[in-house]
Specification:
This protein is of the alpha+beta class. It folds into two domains: 32-130, Immunoglobulin-like, CATH 2.60.40.380; 138-308 and 334-398 and 412-550, 4-Layer Sandwich (Purple Acid Phosphatase, chain A, domain 2), CATH 3.60.21. 24% of the residues lie in helices and 25% in strands. The protein has 13 helices and 23 strands. The strands form five sheets. It has a seven-stranded mixed β-sheet with strand order 10-9-8-20-21-22-23, with helices on one face. Strands 13-14-15-16-18-17-19 form a seven-stranded mixed β-sheet. Strand 20 (503-510) and strand 21 (514-522) form a beta hairpin. Helix 4 (207-217) packs parallel to helix 7 (261-275) and helix 10 runs parallel beside helix 12 (420-433). The chain is globular and about 75 Å long. It starts with 11 loop residues before the first helix and ends with a strand.
Amino acid sequence: MTTDAPLTFVSRRSLLEAAALAPLLGLAPGTLYAAPAARGFTHSVASGDPLQDSVTLWTRYVPAGGGSALLRVELAREPEFASILARGSARVGPESDFCAKFRPEGLEPGRWLYYRFTAPDGEVSDVGRTRTLPEGPLDHFRIGVFSCSNATSGWFNAYGHAAARDDLDLVVHLGDYIYESKLTRSDALPELVVGRGIQPHHEAVSLLDYRQRYASYRLDPDLQALHRAYPMIAMCDDHETVNNSWQHGAANHDPADEGPWAVRMGAAMQAWHEWMPMRPDPYSRYELGDLASLYRLETRILARSEQLDLGAWLKDKPDPLAAAIAFRDGPLADPARTMMGAAQEAWLAEGFAGSVAAGTRWQILAQQVIMGTTLMPRDYGAWFPAGAAPTEQEKTELDLAAKLAELGIPLSMDRWDGYPAARARVLSAAQSAGCDLVVLSGDSHNAWAFDLDNAGKPAGVEFAGHSVSSLGFDKRYSGDPQAVARSYRESNPALKWCDTSRRGYMVVDVRPDRVTNEWLFLHSRHRRSLELLDRHRMQVERGTNRLALA
């Protein structure tokens, strides 16, 4: 048995810089941890990062004196703990924000298991349920997929709905598990800010800030229920650090006011690794029996090139059309620009080839941002309610985006659209290996289904998920959702379906001959409810790399 230390891929130099910067960020050395009034087991339990023979177990325990404590851990086949499979211990203390991890090894594959922690004073944590990954022949595997859960934008009904069902094998979070932004952002509901006790009120910058934000989010009962019910594979998108982050910075990070990027990023990632039931690997591969290889990617801070700024490129250019063409054929097409870096690209290509050679039926990418191309629709009139018209500024911006779309310049430079050469390398690797590729994406807050082509040939399909609670397209444009979706499909032939107005989660059902995705839609903005409002299904049959209605 092994106990996981709170490791991260933050350098020692970054941590030293953080310590030196602490007085500037308002941090006293003895108070670098979230300090709720509660003592004992403050945030229930969680599990994640499962393999066939191991899984990470997590809890948070604050001793009465605020010091360190040694917790006992038990793992059993049944919730009554009549037959204990494994015992161990995990230490908590202020150096890890009182978060404890324990990773039992040598477990049987494909088993549902139950776990609990016991404190020195005899207090016992909630009981959690987890599962090791299966091995060998498998006829189905079902995954719940989540992304973008802003606690001030809406309720976490998607978590609660998934926790209440009993037919999932695993849950995957594609990123934006927390939002670092200030609580007065334009989409924040004051009643949620106050009622849920989200801290701190300002934007998270320091280690203490990020720890407090996780502590606030993890008090949500629906999120706690999800973590108790299923193991989670999680990854970071940008809001775990800063909006629109990349390798050496972020659009919303100002070094003059917020300190060195390496320090802030180091603080954010340290808090993430403390609070999430994950090992320190930035990217990893999971085998779902002989059904699928699941690849968890890192596309944000490990090696991502800075997002291009088309507006700055076009500014003051005497011939905007010529400048736009130069942008498309120059910086945008630059093969040196990367989302993952050469090492991760090589790891993924090798993984594709090995998976197919082993006879594994599906290759699934779990990653952060949309891979399919999204061009601005030619007709955006439906984006506005009847009787409403765009402002002059909106009309200018939308007309420009439509003209750029005619040149093949996409809407967003933060998605794979902003890194077309890197995208082509990933899809080429999948084609060369003969993959049946399924891409799972988050970040956009809306639901999309794409056929993915490369060099004029099918390369895979993409199921892009809507958010748990974060507002999407509907935050800015409130026209008829059906008309909005139609305008997008008409301008983007590879886009087979979309929904731009509702929240929820996805369920991916993997079987030997097909993968079916179901988008589930629930209340979010103003009502805490597990009522299912609607659903939509699409599927891909093995050997086609093409979407169809299910």
